Protein: PAP fimbrial minor pilin protein
Organism: Providencia rettgeri
Amino acid sequence: MLYKFSWLTFILLLGTSLSSYCSAESLITMNGSIIETACSIDISSRDQTIEMGSLSISQMIRDGQSNKKKFSIKLINCVLERTETKKPNWQYFTVTFDGVHDGNLFTVNGQAEGFGIEISSADGEVVYPGKVMSSQELTDGNRDLNYNLRLIRNNKVLEPGNYFSLIKYKLDYE
């Protein structure tokens, strides 16, 4: 009897001891890419959410547009030299914004209607969906590309409600 009790005690103690060595497993997913490019895009600029706030229909009727909302794309670690020495150094870059659009305005989804989104550069160049913007000179180091968003009335009836839009951008280097 003592023998059985000892084994039972041993098994119970072993189970308790082993449970302290058990652990939970988790997974870390990592992704990235190695590319030849003149600049990297700062992580805070990759997937941005710009809160446009509330706007009254009366302001849209009166002004035909909202106030501008600023946003930036931060380029970091820009280097003009290319890794392949037979190719010329990077000199210029262009930006293209694209998404669902109606004419020159990016469309919105949701209950609200009667307007679209216009993007312009800080110096006033209007962005046309899917069209390459003016070429800009590339410099070593970091650089902020500053833009403005605003809502512009279109030919549809103004309807109140929530809205959202998805606009992509890409940078091309020359």
Observations:
- The domain at 40-48+57-169 is CATH 2.60.40.1090 (Immunoglobulin-like).
- The radius of gyration is 28 Å.
- Confidence is low (pLDDT under 50) at residues 1-19.
